[in-house]
Amino acid sequence: MNGYGGENNMQSLKELYKIGNGPSSSHTMGPKKATEVFRDKHRDADKFKVILYGSLAKTGKGHLTDFIIKKALEGYQTEIKFDTKFKCTVHPNTFDIIAYKNDKVLDMWRVYSIGGGSFRIEGEKETLIKEIYKQKSFLEIREYCKKNNLDLYDYVCKFEGKKEISEFLSQIWEVMQQSILNGLNAKGVIPGKLKLKRKAREVFENKTEHDIEDKTKIRLLSSYAYAVGEENACGGVIVTAPTCGACGVLPAVLYYMKQKYNIPDEKIIKALAVAGVIGNVVKSNASISGAECGCQAEIGTACSMAAGAVAYLLNLDMERIDNSAEVAMEHHLGLTCDPVYGYVQIPCIERNAVAAVRAVDSAILSSMLKEDSLVTFDMVVDTMYETGKDLSTHYRETSEGGLAKKYCNNKFFCD
Predict the structure, then answer these.
(1) Tens-digit pLDDT profile for residues 92-146
(2) H helical segments located in 73-187
(3) What does DSSP assign to residue 93?
(4) In this structure, is the dihedral angle defined by the CA atoms of residues 406, 201, 204 and 207, taken in order, positive or negative?
């Protein structure tokens, strides 16, 4: 891995795990944050204009992009334009924001919403967020930990401060658990014209006296993942892990492991740090954006993070954690991002459930493999990025192909 994609700037886990409202980290959280920063810089403006391009233009309505930007600019005259013709050459989640005063331009930013609620500004090479970790790949991290006799949690504490990062991850874990409980206790229909019924509670309660263990595992993991995914789709409070669209996988897996094995929160928090390292490797070297690399970048990364966390909770060594994350990502390669109507509902919510089950299975499979894999996590991340770039734009969060297109072709009322 040598900076083939991503930021190649390993930042704090606080920039990976973010608490916020759904339904999309790249379409709502990133644009909202960038808009607020720009707004605060130009409080004397009397008008703002925002032009959305690429995936933001094509699926922004379903993802509430215009709604969240108007909310960030509340009190100002605001014009929002959806430009679906502009060809994005740097990043598919691109938008311009312009400040005016007395009809004169004060300033303009071209912003790239790069996934997970993060953004970059064109022409500004210096990031607003400093680099925390010096290692650039999982192999480098493994070698550093081996040389310094550290496990992955110790590694995170060394660079972020044990007290500070533990307190932060404790808060993240509290929000994750609450999002599961909120989702399990909710009923009704998810907002939007799909009229999708909430299913988390139904799945959770779908048990019989003679359930086999495998069914119980799938039922619990799926219900937890559905719960968070549905909360996200309804605009509830969730944690990006690494994105809103994939926010159900890691909480579901950690909550399942906690309940099944009676694991204390202190160890779960350490597993969150391990998962964060894995997510950081993908974010820094490739992409966690569905608009850039398809759903493999979101659900695939979430599955790898969760698999690595399970491996840690099972007390597997660093090689097995690497292998668990690799297995989880490898079998999501090529997964398209094709949300129906642009909502983070179909197939997104169900994919979280499937990935949660796969994450646990990936770690268990890895525990049975005694020799190092010929394919490393770094290698599969590199492959994911290249695969994502090769995907047609129809399969990268534009809702112009795949399931989104087929659904509309079979529905006379589709726009």
Answers:
(1) 999 999 999 999 999 999 999 988 888 999 988 644 567 899 999 999 999 999 9
(2) 138-147, 152-160, 162-185
(3) S
(4) negative
Give the CATH fold of the 25-121 domain.
60s Ribosomal Protein L30; Chain: A; (3.30.1330)
Comparing C-alpha atoms, which of 235, 317, 328 is closest to residue 281?
Answer: 328
**Residue, of 131 and 163, whose pLDDT is higher:** 163
> What is the 8-class DSSP label of residue 340?
G
Instruction: Report the alpha-carbon distance of residue 236 to residue 183 in Å, rounded.
Output: 9
| CATH assignment, 138-409 | 1.10.4100
DSSP-derived secondary structure for 260-289: HHT--HHHHHHHHHHHHHHHHHHHHHS---
Where on the phi/psi map is residue 98: left (φ > 0), alpha (ψ -120 to 50), or beta?
A: beta
Convert the pLDDT of each residue in 363-384 to its tens digit.
999 999 877 789 999 999 999 9
Q: Cβ atoms within 10 A of the Cβ of 214, count?
A: 9
pLDDT band at 7 (very low <50, low <70, confident <90, very high): low
